[in-house]
């Protein structure tokens, strides 16, 4: 998750908004809008990635299950001599 550019952009956006509010360049409402949007982007990106990973795992499992061919077992009848 930390390797995603979206996460870093969201964190820097939130940090920038907090810094702008702390220096008086932005109002509290402006800061909150940017912080909420930045955090929302992080969680949305994480959710999309998690869903994509689950879909790839399911497709791989389905392909593995389809490739397994099971032959019917032969009945062995032993004759008494």
Order of helices and strands: HH
Look at the helices and sheets and give the structural class.
mainly alpha
Q: What's the Cα radius of gyration?
A: 28 Å
Q: Would you identify the regions where 5 or more consecutive residues have pLDDT less than 50?
A: none
Describe the sheet with the most strands. none
Give the tally of β-strands. 0
How many separate domains make up the residues?
1
Which band does the percent of strand residues land in?
Answer: under 5%
Instruction: Please tell me the overall pLDDT.
Output: 85
- Based on Cα principal axes, name the global outline: rod-shaped
Helix content: over 70%
Short overview:
With 81 residues, this protein is mostly helical. 73% of the residues lie in helices and 0% in strands. The mean pLDDT is 85.
Could you characterize what this model shows?
This protein has one domain. The protein is 73% helix and 0% strand. It is built from two helices and no strands. The longest helix has 40 residues. The model has no long low-confidence stretch (mean pLDDT 85).
Give keywords.
2 helices, rod-shaped, 81 residues, mainly alpha, single chain
Give the secondary structure arrangement, pairings included.
Elements: H1 5-23, H2 28-67
């Amino acid at each position: 998750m930390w390797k995603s550019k979206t996460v870093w952009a969201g964190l820097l956006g939130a940090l920038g908004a907090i810094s702008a509010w702390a220096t008086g360049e932005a109002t509290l409402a402006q800061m909150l809008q940017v912080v909420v949007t930045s955090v929302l982007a992080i969680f949305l990106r994480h959710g999309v990635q998690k869903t994509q990973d689950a879909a790839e795992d399911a497709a791989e499992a389905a392909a593995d299950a389809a490739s397994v061919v099971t032959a019917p077992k032969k009945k062995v009848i032993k004759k008494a001599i």
